[in-house]
Every structure is written in structure tokens, then in C-alpha cells.
TrEMBL record:
Gene Ontology cellular-component terms listed: plasma membrane
Gene from which this protein is expressed: NAAT1_1
Main location: membrane
Record keywords, A-Z: Amino-acid transport, Glycoprotein, Ion transport, Membrane, Metal-binding, Sodium, Sodium transport, Symport, Transmembrane, Transmembrane helix, Transport
Protein name per UniProt: Sodium-dependent nutrient amino acid transporter 1
Segments traversing the membrane: 6-25, 32-54, 66-88, 108-128, 148-167
Length: 169
């Protein structure tokens, strides 16, 4: 039963991720048939997933997990919080919340959103980078080339997303 539940959770997550990608592509290219987009995303996902079935797949998984799940999410949370609270503005954010919920927020929430949360996230990110000893899996220690490649791929993806946003403006 446990493995059936895990399989169901995995398939459900894969369907949700794939549907999000299909929706984004079909919105961008409305003349393209949806089944072509679906087939393309499934084939690309299958081919990328083949990497994890090789004997070195666990090493690739550790790299991808660390850089896509830990460091990058914390970094993006910090940037997003700073952008919303300090660029968009705390006052405008409070007005938007009041408009949507028809309730005013207290001093505690304003303090947390505007000062404590951005500073705390930045401190945690910087501390994590200072304390980082290098990535390892078991006795294998990743060299700087492997981490450099993964970092470049992550930066390329982030730059591509921002470039698409800028071009659409």
C-alpha cells in the first residue's frame, strides 16, 4: 500500500508539472496543437529522466537537488521578498491586502514583512554560503567543474526567464 501511495503521489505531481508547462507553451504558441506540446514535453521529460537511471544518476540527482531545491529557492525567496517589500513598497502591499481581504494588518505583520523577513532570509542565505564546505555524496566530493556547470545552467535558466519577461514588456 505504501508504494502504491508513493506511485500515486509521483504521478499526480508529474501531471501537475507537465500541465503547467503545457499551459505556458500553449498560451505562448496558440496555433500549435496541444497534443504536439504534450508529446514534446513528455519526450523531453523522458529523455532527461534517463540520466537518473544510469549508475551515475545518483550523483546527478545530488547536484540537481542541492542547486535547484536548496540554494536557489532560498536565494529567490530573498530576492522576491526584497522586491515586493522594498521595490513595490510595503505601503502598497498593505493597501492591496486591505483591498483583497477588507481587513487591516497589524504592526507585527508590517514589521515582519518589511524588515524582519527580508533581513532574516538574507542572513540565512549568506551564512549558508559562508559555511558551505563543498558538495559531496558519500565519499565522493564534487569538483568545481561539476558545480560550475550546474551553476551556469541555473543562471541560464534564470536569465532566460527574465529575458522572456523583458521582451514581453
Amino acid at each position: 500500500m505504501f508504494f502504491l501511495m508513493m506511485f500515486t503521489l509521483g504521478v499526480g505531481s508529474a501531471v501537475a508539472y507537465n500541465t503547467a508547462i503545457i499551459t505556458i507553451i500553449s498560451d505562448r504558441f496558440p496555433r500549435l496543437p496541444v497534443w504536439h506540446i504534450t508529446l514534446g514535453t513528455c519526450v523531453v521529460g523522458f529523455l532527461v529522466g534517463l540520466i537518473y537511471t544510469t549508475p551515475q544518476g545518483q550523483y546527478v540527482l545530488v547536484l540537481v537537488d542541492y542547486y535547484s531545491g536548496g540554494v536557489s529557492i532560498l536565494f529567490l525567496m530573498t530576492l522576491e521578498t526584497v522586491a515586493v517589500m522594498w521595490v513595490y513598497g510595503l505601503r502598497q502591499f498593505i493597501r492591496d491586502i486591505h483591498f483583497m481581504l477588507d481587513r487591516s494588518t497589524g504592526f507585527f505583520w508590517r514589521l515582519c514583512w518589511g524588515i524582519i523577513n527580508p533581513i532574516f532570509l538574507a542572513v540565512v542565505f549568506v551564512y549558508g554560503q559562508i559555511q558551505h564546505q563543498g558538495l559531496a555524496y558519500g565519499t565522493y566530493v564534487y569538483d568545481s567543474m561539476a558545480t560550475g556547470i550546474v551553476t551556469c545552467v541555473g543562471m541560464t535558466v534564470a536569465a532566460g526567464g527574465n529575458l522572456c519577461y523583458i521582451l514581453e514588456m
